[in-house]
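so ive been stuck on this for like two days lol. basically i have the seq below and the ligand is S-adenosylmethionine, smiles is in there too. i just want the complex predicted, nothing fancy, no docking runs or whatever. if the output looks off dont worry ill sanity check it later, just need somthing to start from for the group meeting slides
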Amino acid sequence: MAATTTISCTLFQPQLSHSPSTYFRATVAGHRRRFPRMSASSGAAVMEAERDEKEAVMLKKGIAELYDESSGMWEDIWGDHMHHGFYDAGEDTVVQLSDHRSAQIRMIEEALSFAGLSDESGKKPKRIVDVGCGIGGSSRYLAKKYGAETRGITLSPFQAQRAQALSAAQGLADQVSFQVADALNQPFPDEQFDLVWSMESGEHMPNKAKFVSELARVAAPGATIIIVTWCHRDLSPGETSLKPDEKALLGKICKSFYLPDWCSAADYVNLLRSLNLKDIKSADWSPNVAPFWPAVIRTALTWKGVTSLLRSGWKSIKGAMAMPLMIEGYKNDLIKFAIITCKKPE
Ligand SMILES: C[S@@+](CC[C@H](N)C(=O)[O-])C[C@H]1O[C@@H](n2cnc3c(N)ncnc32)[C@H](O)[C@@H]1O
């Protein structure tokens, strides 16, 4: 178990008392605060900014510890891709773990194809960044596929180290590298990468506007940006927030997986528009990921799953307990597995 478990998950709850979409609007408008200003005094504003800052630090610590603790177990059972698989919609007959692993590779290929990335030489990305890289499964796959130089960032020191070791073992040490760094403050100069890849990391980002602006900043002119992430449903016309029971369900998931407020795919699209990015496209792939969580639960309930879970610690156990909530969220049409892609103008 990770040494420090001092984060009270209730820390992240108050954000959900406000609509995630309202938070989004606040961040788009350039405000860092999550709530409407209660007092005009600058003292109160400073205190609130400090509180936000503290929450962000605690959130990052929780995320780092969750992945430090659980990545070895995940790799043991599932291999080096820590993301959903992509299945034909309505497919419910996938049984073998190897087929689920193939579905995870298919997820990468489907995302590239949705974004319109070309396999033609001359058009292949030469420099790629993997934002929220896990143990580098996507980084290595993309580096091999395109012969590209790839950089990965993660909050988890364990993941960065493991990603580097796996890459070295596969002869990719000169082509692929990893470091511990924050996606909201990326350690790269502007306009570095032809492909900016974020596979299931956006849901962890407490400031979606900053997240997206960093993705756009490091993208070279003409680069493709791919965001595959958990979203809540788009709000209907006239709706200003999710329903209380929906917020309550997301709140429980947030506590277990170290997630801040959620937003919708439409929110992401608006953010990308606000940055003048082009060819913006999004899709709801929820029907294509339906077999994934039931499969993860099945593997968690095997002897190997249970013993690895107990060995890895409390944060991982809490995460495992939230898996049925993800299934419930998808079934209720509350959680959406979204892909959002765009290009940076030349
Ligand atoms: C579910 S894992 C996905 C890993 C990887 N993309 C994959 O598909 O195998 C989420 C990843 O996001 C990373 N992450 C979350 N918040 C981050 C942040 N603020 N900066 C950098 N990485 C972050 C975590 O460290 C973890 O590596």
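Confidence is low (pLDDT under 50) at residues 1-38. The two ends are 47 Å apart (CA to CA).
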